[in-house]
Amino acid sequence: MAIEIAARKREMQGTGPARRMRRMGRVPGVLYGGDKNPVSLELDHKDLYLNLRNEKFHASILTLDIGGAKEQVLLRSVSMHPFRPQVQHIDFQRISKDKKIHMKVPLHFVNAEKSPGVKEQGGVVNHVLNELHIVCFPDDLPEFVEVDLSSLAVGKSLHARELSLPKGVELSMHKAEDPVVATVVVPQLITEEEEAAQAAAAVAAADVPTTEQAAAPKDGEAPAEGADKGAAAGKGGEKAAAKGGGDKAAPKAAEKPAADKGEKKEKK
User: Fold this and answer.
1) Does one domain contain both 86 and 169?
2) How confident is the model at residue 214 (pLDDT cuts 50, 70, 90)?
3) 40-73 pLDDT, tens per residue?
4) Is 17 strand, coil or helix?
5) Residue 129 shares a structural domain with residue 180
6) Band of the pLDDT at 237, cuts 50, 70, 90?
7) Which domain holds residue 180?
8) Would 24 be classed as within a structural domain?
9) Do the domain assignments include residue 237?
10) Model pTM?
11) CATH label of the domain that carries residue 166
């Protein structure tokens, strides 16, 4: 059953009217394509948001009801708010039954549990693509393309040109292009021995000193800058010690004249 969505023509255009429209629960949009002029639209946000959650709405021929006038359209673009669940703008394109259309259709993966890579070899299916570009007439547009994984083994890949497409549907890609759709890989598990080896390597790396020690200067070479400062500091300490020792010896020398004077008095 075709999906039908109601809309009405939008008279006011510009940033200001669009903001007021969003505050009122409406969504600005546009309809273009075909032999007719573009039409500015406004749609109910609640109905539109619920339809956007349906996968079929994105890859089907839609019926757009504009005030009683119905047209066959495709959903071409949706702009969402950066962080709110709010539709900011939407674009629809008219279609003609006698002209081919380019569309992205979703991929449905089946029979993964029956594949030898999963059932016998313990592998896991990796979905490389989730949608496919196709070309077809509007009446031949499929809702999705089925991908059969029943024969996929570990280390093997399923390419786009190997898929069974519905009648009247072609791939939209260059002749030399054949992208990978799905693969089966074996999950890598880290054993306890590997974890212990990694921990030992981390401890050994932590034992290595991070500062470089200065080497002793060779004969004929100038000492390092740090060594000069250390030597200067050592000499300064020796001078200070010598000076301090001289000060302590001075009182002893001064005591001798006083003792001599005492001896002279006794002789008298």
Assistant:
1) no
2) low
3) 999 999 999 999 999 999 989 999 999 889 999 9
4) helix
5) yes
6) low
7) 102-185
8) yes
9) no
10) 0.64
11) 2.170.120.20
